[in-house]
Specification:
By secondary structure, the chain is α+β, with helices and mostly antiparallel strands. The chain has 2 domains: about 1-95, Ribosomal Protein L25, Chain P; about 105-195, Beta Complex (RNA Polymerase Alpha Subunit, Chain A, domain 2), CATH 2.170.120. About 20% of the residues lie in helices and about 40% in strands. The chain has 5 helices and 13 strands. The strands form 3 sheets. The chain has a 6-stranded mixed barrel. A 4-stranded mixed β-sheet has the order 10-7-9-12, with no helix packed on it. It has a 3-stranded antiparallel β-sheet with strand order 8-13-11, with no helix packed on it. A hairpin with a 2-residue loop joins strand 4 and strand 5 (about 70-80). About 20% of the residues are buried.
Length: about 210
Amino acid sequence: MSSNIVLTVDVREGTGKGAARAARREDLVPGVLYGGKLGPVSINLRGNEIRKALLTGKFISNMMELEHDGKRQQVIARDIQFHPVSDAPLHVDLFRVDEDTKINVEVTVHFINEEKSPGMKRGGVLNIVRHTVELLCPAGSIPEALEADLSGLDIGDTIHMSSISLPKGVTPTITDRDFTVATLQGSRAVLTPEADEDETPETEVINQKSEDE
């Protein structure tokens, strides 16, 4: 899925830490462009454009475009490094793609329709096994999120990967089993109400016996 982000890029002549530090002093973010039929290229990106792109929440795992000398190249961000204190972007790895290039991406799972789950209404607890799922996707068909529907689920039910709809051409990278995404478990209050009720009479009997003795 395209994010409509366009980044201006320049080829970086120097390499190494010295060249990277010099770029950052000019509010440029050094990076590497690789993948496809061409070799890796050291690049500089505009710091203000990177910061703006990060604010969209679509910088990682979404198709973007690089613009250089009036030409555009589709890419996807594979990694970004941040300063440990200021959180300023320090380095970006970009991968050349087209609409059909297949890549592995981590996609967040959203859980919907909790109000339609009998188990949740009874006080059940959703135990999330996987907050994200790794998918093999065409670069032009990366879903923003996956939706796991809780409608009709009761305590003890399990959400498997097979119950989550995927766009055409998108598959999980784990293919040898129908793995668990989440389970609906009962809280202690839901599972043991009768046991708690039984404790009071038993205690009263014991206390009464002690007084009689």
